[in-house]
């Protein structure tokens, strides 16, 4: 596949790493206004770094946009004359609707919105997808790309804002939980490196139990909580201090913030 990433910042670099390590490219163009911070990608076969978005677009079929929301509209205007019917436009931009993209480039381009997360760098992204009417014809291509780099789910566009919080911001939320459990492990006697190893592999195991057998988390919790034991003691103390409530409140706050970001763009 001939892929371009327009705006190779935090997310763009993660996508590039995932594509390269998974051998998922015929060619890969990476664009950025200043190429210094993506020099790590120099020297890879069939990977090209450029400041020229138009060059990347002309040389590629799949165009993945990963710029800040405030920059997207101008970039769409810049590249519009270079779009042809070979192109599939994939936007990862938070809060930028398909309608707004179509308002700039029209309805005769395959448009897909993708909401991946930075775990795409290690082939473990949970990515949500939706498309415009025409893009339905190319959604299978997007699913193939993102399934190769993790797991994908195609959803209605109305759910993309929630998907942003759960999946994209979700990486930060889970990191904080892993950090907190690491801190607790240190307090309980492990050195910092050991503590993080215990926390991350336990987290990995918990997620994989659910992925493997499809159980509800409470079914797995029931298997761990010995009556009158230490697990239920700890779990209930966490809930008295608002663990679940705090996570839910935080995620709803993230969701509401996207509404503010969207208003600021108009
Ligand atoms: N960081 C994340 O985990 C996720 C980010 N997103 C979305 O992806 C987009 C990018 O986010 P980040 O990577 O975090 O931001 P970032 O600021 O790290 O990356 C954006 C990049 O675009 C480049 N850029 C700006 N104008 C350009 C132009 N005219 N031509 C080429 N490149 C240009 C910037 O130099 C920068 O490197 C945002 O819209 C964000 O909402 C979506 C899911 C996850
Ligand atoms: O924090 C943000 O606004 C972006 C969107 C999801 C991840 N990063």
TrEMBL record:
Keyword field: Amino-acid biosynthesis, Cytoplasm, NADP, Oxidoreductase, Proline biosynthesis
Binding-site positions, NADPH: 53
Coarse class of the protein's main subcellular location: cytoplasm
Reaction it catalyzes: L-proline + NAD(+) = (S)-1-pyrroline-5-carboxylate + NADH + 2 H(+); L-proline + NADP(+) = (S)-1-pyrroline-5-carboxylate + NADPH + 2 H(+)
InterPro entries cross-referenced by the UniProt entry: 6-PGluconate_DH-like_C_sf (IPR008927), NAD(P)-bd_dom_sf (IPR036291), P5C_Rdtase_cat_N (IPR028939), P5CR_dimer (IPR029036), Pyrroline-COOH_reductase (IPR000304)
NCBIfam families the record matches: proC
UniProt family annotation: Belongs to the pyrroline-5-carboxylate reductase family.
Protein name: Pyrroline-5-carboxylate reductase
Organism: Polaribacter gangjinensis
Taxonomic path: Bacteria, Pseudomonadati, Bacteroidota, Flavobacteriia, Flavobacteriales
